[in-house]
Specification:
260 residues; alpha/beta; six-stranded parallel beta sheet; five-stranded mixed beta sheet; 11 strands; 38% helix; binds ligand 2YC; binds magnesium ion
Length: 260
């Protein structure tokens, strides 16, 4: 999994609002309403303990601060613990946190201490970006393209299958693709066949320029948490593309709603 950098998180709240406007334009609803509907729940004023973790590659500049930003946007009572790691965990519990947010290089979790629910960033990011793509208001089809069937892509594809979409999927790793065909029933998408063009695309890869002209219709919605962007800026301008791509906060919103 590609680790975020402080640059990725530059002006993260501005990036979030810009993307929320694009989501509203392309789906008719904002991220809060979409999360309420996906998880069939509403946020209250939960207390959120944000715990910096020094393990592995250590603290990422602006990571904890970015999490604090989204807790404010969602009108939650967020705080960053004074200490890191276990001492930070202890702080958060002592300050009566309802939900803990913490990440090492392998997993980023939200843990609700009141109901025991725990969620991971990669699953919640996959679900919410797939959901956004599937809500394209100018799409008159249930056909949707999923590019990338790693942990994030697989979670999104699974969510779309459950919602009754016809998922056409591609991953250069045949094992990942065969797994998704066998376990989820996705249709393998042959990138060399100049076949179907999609107006709804969910891309979850660590690679750039994975989306080509042959894959998308002139007017389309591309939803991708992937850094770097799978949609080249040329294609983004040649075609009329609504591009939803934000480094962290849309996924975190999904995590918080999923443990309520
Ligand atoms: O600042 C800290 O507390 C660090 N331990 C945070 C490490 C986060 C590592 N994960 C990532 O960079 C991201 C995930 C948030 C999603 C994809 N990569
Ligand atoms: Mg990508």
């Amino acid at each position: 999994m590609a680790l975020l950098t402080p640059d990725d998180l530059y002006n993260v709240s501005r990036q979030f609002e810009k993307n929320n406007d694009i989501i509203k334009r392309a789906t008719g609803q904002g991220i809060r309403d979409i999360c309420e509907s996906v998880y069939n729940t509403k946020l209250g004023n939960e207390k959120i303990g944000i715990i910096p973790i020094t393990a592995g590659n250590g603290i990422i500049g602006n990571f904890a601060e970015s999490l604090f930003t989204i807790t404010n946007y969602l009108k939650l009572d967020g705080f960053i613990t004074n200490h890191t790691d276990v001492a930070g965990y202890y702080d958060a519990v002592n300050q009566n946190a309802d939900i803990l947010l913490m990440a090492d290089d392998y997993v980023f979790i939200a843990h609700n201490l009141r109901n025991g629910k725990i969620a991971t960033n990669h699953v919640c990011t996959g679900v919410i970006y797939a959901e956004i793509a599937s809500r394209c208001k100018y799409a008159d089809t249930k056909d949707i393209l999923v590019i990338g069937l790693g942990k994030v892509g697989y979670a999104g594809a699974s969510h779309l299958i459950k919602k009754g979409f016809n998922v056409h999927a591609y991953d250069p790793d045949n094992e990942a693709l065969n797994n998704a065909i066998k376990e989820l029933g996705v249709h393998p998408y042959d990138i060399n066949s100049n076949g179907k063009k999609f107006c709804m695309v969910f891309e979850a890869t660590p690679n750039e320029n994975t989306i080509t002209k042959d894959m998308i219709s002139e007017r389309c919605l591309v939803s991708t948490p992937g850094i770097p962007c799978g949609l080249s800026s040329e294609l983004g301008s040649d075609y009329d593309v609504d591009l939803v791509m934000e480094p962290l906060l849309i996924g975190v919103a999904s995590m918080l709603y999923s443990v309520i």
